[in-house]
Structure formats: C-alpha cells, structure tokens
Give the backbone structure.
Amino acid sequence: MFQRFGIRSVIAAPLQVKGKMIGVLGATEKSEYAFTPVHVDFLKKLSVSVSLAIENARLFKNVQQELTERKRAENKLIQLKKDLEAEIRDMNVLQMLSTRYIEGNDFSFLLQEIIEAAIAITGADKGNLQLLDPSTGKLKIAAHKNFDIHFLKFFEEVEAGEAASCGMAMERLERVIVEDVTHSPIFKGSDALDVLLDEGVLAVQSTPLLARSGRLLGIISTHFRQVHSPADRELRVIDILARQAADIIERSQAEEALRKAHDELEIRVQERTAELEEANQALQAEIKERKRTEATLAENEERLKLAQKAANAGTWDWNMLTGELKWSEEYYLIHGLTTDHEPYYKNWFKTVHPDDHDMVSKAVAQAIEQKMDIDIEFRTIRPDGNLCWLNAKGKTFYDDVNRPVRMVGITIDITEKKKLQAQLLQAQRMESIGTLTGGLAHNINNMLTPMTLSLQMLKNKFTDEQSQRLLNILEKNTQYSADLIKQVMSFTRGIEGERKIIQVTELISEIEKIAKQTFPKSIEVRAGVPGDLWNISGDATQLHQVLMNMCMNARDAMPDGGILNISAENLLVDENYARVNIGAKAGSYVVITVSDTGTGIPPKILDRIFEPFFTTKEFGKGTGLCLSVSLAIVKSHGGFIDVHSETGKGTTFRIHLPAVATGTQETKDLQFELSSGKGELILVVDDEPSVRDITSLILETKGYKVITADDGAEAITLYLQYRNEIKAVIMDMMMPVMEGPQSIRALNKINPEIRIIAASGLTEKDKLAKVPDNHVKAFLSKPYTAEVLLKTIYEVLSAK
C-alpha cells in the first residue's frame, strides 16, 4: 500500500484507552527519512493526548444521548400523571353520581348531575340530556347547562334522523362526533347550524343511552366552543357514564311504572273489597234464612251436617282437552298428596278405589253426554294406604261446537259422615238383631224347660251305665244351651243388677290378680290406676264380666305372648267429643282401658265385632257373644265403648262409664274452668284433617295461635320457619312420610329445649319406646277432650 502512494518512510504510535487499542497515529514521508528518538517520544506523547481526546468526545456524546432520553421520559411521566389525575377526577365524578342515586335524590336532580358530570369528563362548555318520549317517539330535553332559551326551544323535540348530532345518534343507536360543525354534512344548509353558531358551538358529540335490552332511553350530548376531537380516554369514560345514566333512568322509570301499578291495584283492591263485603252481607243474610228453615231437623241429621261442615272441601278445574287438573291447596290435603304431584286426570283416576273405577267412569261419561251436573260419592286411597270417602260435584262447559272442554267442581271429604252413617246402621242392625234374638230366646227357653225336667226323670228311670252316659251328654248340652240363651238375654235386654257405688281401683285389682294367676306366663299383665280416680255406680258382677271378656279376648289374640295392659283415668267429655261418638253425652266419665300387643283386628271386620254370634275363632271355641254382651252391659250402665286396632300391633278397648259424686268427689256437670292461652303459637301435627281441625278450633277459641302440618316432614319445615315463635308441638305418633318418633328426634336435634306433646290412638305409652324420655313433655291419649287438651298444654307451658 505504501509503495502505491509513494511512501518511503513511516513512523506510528498506537492509540489506547485503558489498555485497549482504539486506533493508530502515524506520520509518513515520501523520501527516505531517519526519525530520531525525539520524534518517537513526541509521537508517543501525542498519541496519548489524541487517545484521551477521542475518549472524551465519545463520553460527551453518550452523556448527551442519556440526557435526551431522560428528558423524554420525564415528559412522558408528566403526561401520565396528568392522565391519571384526569382519570381519578372522572372516577370521582362517577362515584359521586352513584352516591347521589343511592341516597335517593330526586330524579330531575340526578339528571342534572349526569349532564354536569358529562361536561366535566369531556371538558365541554355546554351540554344537555334528552329522554325518549314513548308516546311520541321523539327526544325531549330533560336536563341542560349553559344554553339560552332560543337553543332550548329549537331543540325542544328531535326526531330520529333529524339534522342534528342527537337525531343521527338516535337513528343509528351509536355515538356521533362532529369535530367542526361548519364542515359537517350533518348540519350543512340546516337551521340547526345557525342555532349552534349563534350559541357559539363549533363541535359536539352525542352518545345514546341504551337499556340493557338495547332499547333507546335517551341521548347525552356535550358541546364545545372550539373545534374539538374527544380523546379516547374521554370517550371511554363517557361510555361508563352513559351506562350508569341508562341504568338510573331505566330503574327510575321502572319504579314509576311500579308505583302507578301499585296505585291502580290499590284502587282495584278497595273496589273488590267493597264488592266482597256486600256479597258477604248477602251471604250472611242467606245463611241466617237457611238456619231458620233447618231448625226442625232431627238430632242425627244435625250431627251429620256438623260432620260435613268439619270435613275439608277442595275445588278442582279439569281441562278436558289436555287432561290437566288445577287443584286448590285443600284438594291436595284431602287426597293426602303433596303439591309436587302432577294433577292430571289419569293420575287422579289411579287414586280412585279399584272397585269404584267403573262407577266413576260411567258417572262422568253420563254427565258429559246428558249435559247434567255430576254428583257422585266414591272411595279414594291415599298414599299412606288409608281409605277416604269423597263427594264430588261439578258442572261441564262446552265450546261453540258443543264439544266438552272443561269441568269445574268441588270435592268434600265425607269420610266422617260415612263413619257416622255406619254407626247408625250398626245401631239399627244391632237393635233389629236384639229384637229377633230376644224373641227366639224366649221361645227356646220355653222348649228347654220341659226338656230339663224330663232329663231328671229319665236319669232316675234308666240307671244303666250307657243310658246314664247318654243322658249326661244331653243334660250337659241342655245346660250349655240355657247358659247361651242367658247371654243372649243379657245382650237383648241387659241385666238389671243391683247398682252400688264401685271403686274401679278394686275392680281392676281383682281382674289383674285373676289374669296373672290364670293366663300363660308368656303374657305380661300390667295395671295402672291413678290415686284420684272417681267412683262409678253399677253392678260389680256385670262389670267384672265385661273386663274378663275383654281380657280373655286379649289373651286369645296373643298366642305367642305379649303385654296386657289394664288402666283407668278420669275424663270430662265435652260436646265436641260427644258429637262424634254415638251413645256419648257430655259429662264426667271413668275410662277403663284394656289393650294388648296381639294380632290386631282386620279393618274389614272391625265394625262387626259387637254383632251377636260373630266370631273369628274356630268352631266350638267361642259363641260370638262376649263382646255383644259386654256392650249391652256397658250401655245399660249409661256408658259406651270405642275400639282402636292395628293389624299386627294390637288392640285397645276404652270402656266409658259415667262417674258419680261421693262425699269427697264432686263433678259439677262439666262446670270446669278451661285454661286459656295468651297468644302462644302451637304447632299441631296430625294426618287426620278432622283431628287437626277440631284441635285447632279448641285452641284458637281459648286464645292460642295455631299452625298445622299433616306429616312429620312438613312439621320440621314449619318449625325451622317459626322456631322462635312456636311454644309447643302436639305430635301424632303414626303418620305417613315421617312418623312421630322420627319427627320428634329430628325436632330435638334442632332445639333440645323444644316442648313436645305426643298423641296416639293406642293408649299404652309403649308407643314412645323409640323416643328418649326427655324428648316428650306429656302424652295425650286419643280421643281426648277439650279439658284434657287445654290442661296438658297449660301444664307443659307452665313447667320450668
């Protein structure tokens, strides 16, 4: 390279910074030249100076670049700070608006707050908020700021698509921004442009206010005195404001509509109340008139009427085209169904007793075909297996082409009525059988007398062994026939024994002693009598026979052993109790109970057990007269018997005998003082509607409040809802869905301090064996009277 440029002599020194070579410093000569040490030393020193100069220049450049970047970052931070401050300011505005709304400020005041917030967010000079009038479909100014009257009058109403940013936003349902009104095609050649310029407006933006459904509620617009293009941040915040404003407007409009609807409903309720009061007065007048015309009905007809009134009645509506049924709440209760049961005709028909299917089907078809009202009585089977008698009455409706489309009616639970009718029929049948058997017994006795006398003569005449054996057989059977006729006579006429004051305690003690001595050891005999038991008036021998008959039947019902329980108690029978028990009268009674844990009596024969000669025992092991004679004896003493039995669980007989006053005992014709409540809430749980109704009526009459449940599951639901108000629970021990013991345990888990009164149709308290002692505060034996019920509740509530 040196030769190409003609260089003959060269001197060079390296350029170094911190030991690192950054270049070379040299000198050349085209002729031969001898460089001296002085030259070399000078070049070395010069290379050091040049290296430092180059390094300083590079450092200076780097500093300049760093300062430039730092300045740029500082400017960016300043802008970010401004943006953040603006963001905070806008959020404060939105928060303040929410606070004002929550405080419940006036709607017009809130609209004014919204437009002022929009002006503050966008930095505008003016602004207005328009609401859509549904009746005209036009926008109307509802709030504004900084406009003169001419502007407000010109834009008082705006239609969709009109030459204005709000009109275009209304048509498009999206924001319209006009950065310069003088160059915008929206305002070109329009009167609106002149109005804007007169107002000093050069730019405008209009944002629609949309409901959550997308429906237009109004427009919010902000106006600027200078040409202006809103920043993205401003538009983002104005969108948030628009959403907030739309929610406020929509909710306020909904509240106003609700208020108007409430006012209209209030007027309708008042009108309807007046109509109902008028109708009620007319109904009361009609009821009084009917009562006057029905005053001559017989006592038994009156009882049947009361039983029907006590039964529940439910309404139904059958859509015959779809098969769908609409039931009232009472109808579900009558059938023992829950409200989740699908009420279709085919489902309802399955509840009808199979033996009544044809009768019901034919009755319905006949009513539809002949266009007549339906009125039928039939049986239904509840989910718990209980049989229920119903009376259904209804009317069919037809369409224009005479097609049946609907049947509407009412169903009444007449089970109690049927039971009373059965009792009356049984009493009439027993009376007829008594008359017949009484006549037969008289004639047979007339025939047995000469036979008995002749046998004595024949025994004296024929003394051989064979003749004596045959005559003994005849004598034994003749005597058996005579004894049988005596029992028949006891049934038909009663036995007029000598009436004396009897201490029931001694009578039961004698029976207990005999039973323990003579009955199998596998039968446990129990007896329990209170110390304050009243006395009765009667024939001790006859009553002894009644109790022995009951005990022997109990013994025969427990071939494998069991428990025979004999007890007694005082009972004051009130009118309600007497109304549903044929032969009962209001007054004081001693109730002797004989119960067993044997095989029980099948329901189909329970109503026949008091018939003479009816027996389920093998031939030769029973005459079928024990219970009929016992009933006759009890009736002759002015008493009555009721029986409760469960197949496989046992039977309970309750013998009611009138009590008498002695020197230390007074029963003043039921002049007892019934304890009254003070508004305490009582939960009554029983699957029998008649029991719930009469119990609730007695408690409410005496100052208590009552809620009812028809099974344990519903009882638990009600208790969870009213646990702080409920003071006591009356719990039936045998119910569908959830039985009493299970329900009691569940309630005690909820509240160990709960006061529960158990109730059972069987008197033995062994029914409570599955329930811990501290879970039940008292026990009610069905049927109970008003005095027993109120006294028990008073004692339970008063106990600490």
Summary: The first helix runs from residue 2 to 5. The chain is about 50% helix and 20% strand. Residues 681-798 form a domain with the Rossmann fold fold (CATH 3.40.50.2300).
